[in-house]
């Protein structure tokens, strides 16, 4: 991983995502100070727990707010000194963050996902121009980061990549159960399904390295022979509403993100 430009970063909330970000930062050699009133010890090796929010601010000028959406504003209002606050909460708007943070602070909206802990995360962010470089360097080495030009797109990011790992894992389990149903053991089926999903993505990414306009359906057609097994399998997926269900999942998650933003 690229070395982090900040000597220290604070993280408020060490749940799944907060801990994932903390772990990734520690790997980059960053000193991480965490605050979580529900924990007596840090779930991440290398993170120093601090007893108060002000204690976090004393140690770090960049603070990641990784609490539930309804707690973001109350937490920000507890700080008395300005800082750069990075919120990963779904639905909490830039304006609400700015109003709740101490005067003179910079605020950033980020929607990451869990694979960032393995350096393969997908995240998008919205912020002012003068902190773009800081955000890019903060999350450098954790995966693909994209700056959205309209804040409204953050809800779509939440529905797609923020919630996306759950969709992929559901598909993985469905493939595994399909193999199990046809006689493979669970472990055999799971191993084949995982390698198929990962291998296909690596292969497609490598192809797009030589042709950025290459469409997924074009490559899919390469393995879809007339009257063969694949076209029959694809037919079953479409009769089951697979593509529509995926689009609807993203739409519903996006709508929920908007609902959370309304309080």
From TrEMBL:
GO cellular component annotations of the record: cytoplasm
Protein's pathway: Amino-acid biosynthesis; L-proline biosynthesis; L-proline from L-glutamate 5-semialdehyde: step 1/1
GO molecular function: pyrroline-5-carboxylate reductase activity
Listed EC numbers: 1.5.1.2
Superkingdom of the organism of origin: Bacteria
Keyword annotations: Amino-acid biosynthesis, Cytoplasm, NADP, Oxidoreductase, Proline biosynthesis
Pyrroline-5-carboxylate reductase dimerisation domain sequence ranges: 151-260
Main subcellular location: cytoplasm
Sites where the protein binds NADP(+): 66-69
Compartments, as annotated in UniProt: Cytoplasm
Catalysed reactions, as listed in the record: L-proline + NAD(+) = (S)-1-pyrroline-5-carboxylate + NADH + 2 H(+); L-proline + NADP(+) = (S)-1-pyrroline-5-carboxylate + NADPH + 2 H(+)
GO BP of this protein: L-proline biosynthetic process
Enzyme class: oxidoreductase
Domain Pyrroline-5-carboxylate reductase catalytic N-terminal: 9-91
Family: Belongs to the pyrroline-5-carboxylate reductase family.
Role this protein plays: Catalyzes the reduction of 1-pyrroline-5-carboxylate (PCA) to L-proline.
Family matches, as HAMAP family: P5C_reductase (MF_01925)
Classification via NCBIfam families: proC (TIGR00112)
Protein name from the UniProt record: Pyrroline-5-carboxylate reductase
Source organism: Leptospira brenneri
